[in-house]
Amino acid sequence: xxxxxxxxxxxxxxxxxxxxxxxxxxxxxxxxxxxxxxxxxxxxxxxxxxxxxxxxxxxxxxxxxxxxxxxxxxxxxxxxxxxxxxxxxxxxxxxxxx
Length: 98
Description:
- By secondary structure, the chain is α/β, with parallel strands linked by helices.
- The protein has two helices and five strands.
- The protein is globular, with a radius of gyration of 13 Å.
C-alpha cells in the first residue's frame, strides 16, 4: 500500500509516494500544459496515471492557501475539484486535507 501526498499547483504539482514500510518510492513534480480546461485535464490525467501504478492507501492533499490572489484561489479550487472527481470515478477513497 502506498500513501500519496499532493501539493496541487497550476504550474508544477508536487507529489510524494511513501510505501507502508516508510520508504519513499516516488517524489517529484508534474508540469502542466495548456490553459483553463486543457491545463486541468493535463494535471489530472498525470496525477491519475501515477495513482494507477500503485495500490493507493491514503491520499493527503495540501489545503488551499488563502494568501493567494482570488483568481488563483478560484483556479486552484477547480483543480482540487477535478482531482476529487477523478478519484471518485476511479473509486479511490477521497483525500484528506492537510
